[in-house]
Amino acid sequence: MEKISILSFLLVILCLITRDLACKGETNLGNCLRFDREALLDFKNGLNGSIDLISSWKGGNCCHWKGISCENNTGPVISIDLHNPYSREKAYEKWSSISFRGEIRPSLTKLKFLRYLDLSGNSFEGIPIPKFFGSLKNLHYLNLSNCGFNGTIPPNLGNLSNLQYLDLTFDESYDLFANGVEWMTSLVSLKHLRMKHVNLAKVGSHWVEALNKLPLLTELHLINCHLYGRISTLSAINFTSLSVISITGHSFHSKFPIWLLNLSSLVSLNLRNNHLYGQIPPGLGELPNLQYLDLSRNNHLTGSFSQLLRGSWKKIEVLNLASNKFLGIIPSSIQSFFNLRYLDAGDNSLTGSLPEFSKEIKNCTSECLLPDLDYLGFSNNQLVGRLPEWLSQLEVLTHLDLFNNMLQGCIPASFGTFGNMKYMELGWNELNGSLPASFGQLSELVFLDVSRNHLNGILSEEHFSKLSKLKKLWIDGNSSLILNVSSSWVPPFQITHLDLNSCNLGHFPTWLKSQKEVSFLELSNSSISGQ
Questions:
Q1: Bridge partners (DSSP) listed for residue 400
Q2: Which residues contact 149 (CB under 8 A, 6 or more apart)?
Q3: CB–CB of 364/358 below 8 Å?
Q4: Strand ranges, E, within 378-436
Q5: Which of 137, 177, 273, 529 is the most buried (most CB within 10 A)?
Q6: Which helix (H) or strand (E) holds 5?
Q7: Partners of 302 in the beta sheet?
């Protein structure tokens, strides 16, 4: 009798606990809170499309639904990941078949522990970003990129004080804009901010001061956001954690912001195509962690190229200064940039010759001479002198662009030893002599341009023996260059673009019959005789 009384008492207590949990909406249905499940089902009912994904949204345990994650797999819903993995531009049919449309219902606000929300890559067809997103106060991650939202960014997103990642990347077919940026100053936990094709034209120059109030910000991406005018100066730097800055495609008409030199944590800086002007401070090369620098296509940045590159540049891997007004010579100090993978200083006003390195460097292997350099470009400058032999020691080089300078002398036979060369652009110089037969060994070559030089001699089948990947060949404008191959020759390549203008062909090149992919062919003034 006593055991029955105890059992009855325990059952009463259990019933009371169950009723209390139910009243609070915390009934656990197969390891899923009832209110969370009901909120998700209402959210689902507002969507259409992507049947495959949300077809799993049935049964009592929402923690097992696709795209849903719960705390410790049994607690409240903490993550909704419904991103579309396909690109609209590159795989439209696949993208369209699983893309969500419809409305986003405010039932999401009932998910009190939601920390992660990714709706990227879907198509909500011009609806505004829901204002109630500003009520999801536990969010750490919000990705709304390429969702097809339109209209004003709701300022109450500033209520998301726990937010660490915000992505508002959009394509140009929608008009998403912000009337101000004051709301950003409340995102005190933000570490990563990405905006692309978001119209920020109305915010003026205040965006710099606003972002400077985010002490934890480590990555900042503002791409084609209609910013203009002067970039503000900062008397004190608060966002000292910044390691990645990508601000491109704007009309600032401003000087280079000197305060960037105070960001010692900076790893990557991309300020291309912003209409910046004026001198670049040499101190840029002293940033201790800088690995990536792109200042290209500003058109009016200037300064001494040699002085700029005399900095230590301890970790620099990518250095793009193309399409500006840098002056002077190329310093030999680049031989010490041991981590360099990409160097482009094309479209400037550089003079002098390509540098000659010290004897020790000149004779060393690729282990000590720019061992990782993949791209080297000095096109459209005023360089003179000869092509130095040390270039052929850059064993991983795939792209050499020296187009449109005043380089002279012969092309070294060692240029035929590049094991990885894909694009060699030597056109529009004053090179003379013959094209080395060793070029026939460039088995990875895709594009060769030696046009508008003073080359002479004979091009034989040997010059093309291993060029199986060749697609574009420009040798036009070399009137003393003779192409001499047998009438039965079948090239190892399938060419798409061929310019033999003003070369000496003698007879019509019958080998063209074997070429099935030609889209551009120029044979004018090429001394063709016979039928």
A1: 376, 424
A2: 124, 126, 127, 128, 129, 170, 174, 176
A3: no
A4: 399-401, 408-410, 423-425, 430-433
A5: 273
A6: helix 2-23
A7: 279, 325
Q: Which residues lie closer than 8 Å to 240 by C-beta, 6 or more apart?
A: 215, 262, 263, 264, 265
Are the CB atoms for 334 and 359 separated by under 8 Å?
A: no
Question: What are the pLDDT digits (tens) for 334-390?
Answer: 999 999 999 999 999 999 999 987 644 544 444 568 999 999 999 999 999 999 999
Give me 495's structure tokens.
């060419």
In 3D, which of 505, 494, 406 has the Cα closest to residue 446?
494
Task: Report DSSP letters for 428-445, one per residue.
Answer: SSEEEEPPPGGGGG-TT-
CB 350 within 8 A of CB 324: no
- What the block records as the tokens of 61 is 């345990």
- Alpha-carbon distance of 108 to 523, in angstroms, equals 66
Integer Cα distance of 380 and 425 in angstroms = 11
CA distance 222 to 205: 14
Residues 415-452 have pLDDT tens digits of 999 999 999 999 999 999 999 999 999 999 999 999 99
Residue 195, both tokens: 């905006």
Angle at 203 between CA 175 and CA 184, to 5 degrees: 90
Q: Name the nearest CA neighbour of 418 among 352, 366, 354.
A: 366
Which is it for strands 342-344 and 375-377: parallel, antiparallel or unpaired?
parallel
List the structure tokens of 158.
């500033």
For residues 325 and 460, give the distance between their C-alpha atoms in angstroms, rounded to a whole number.
41
Could you tell me which residues are beta bridge partners of residue 79?
Answer: 69, 116
Question: What is the enclosing helix (H) or strand (E) of 339?
Answer: none
Q: With contact defined as beta carbons under 8 Å apart, do 313 and 289 qualify?
A: no
Query: What DSSP character marks residue 151?
Result: E
Concatenating the DSSP letter of every residue in 55-119 gives: TT--SS-GGGSTTEEEGGGTSSEEEEE----S-TTT-HHHHHHH--EE---GGGGG-TT--EEE-
Residue 430 CA to residue 436 CA, distance in Å, equals: 16
The two structure tokens encoding residue 121? 């890559």
Rounded to 5 degrees, what are φ and ψ at 209? Answer: -65, -40
Q: Tell me the pTM.
A: 0.89
Distance from C-alpha of 221 to C-alpha of 239, rounded to nearest angstrom: 14
Joined together, the tokens standing for residue 253 give 């008409």
Residue with tokens 């036979």: 413
Q: Report CA-CA distances (Å) from 132 to 25, 43, 236, 353, 525.
A: 21, 13, 35, 62, 70
Identity at 507, one-letter amino acid code:
H
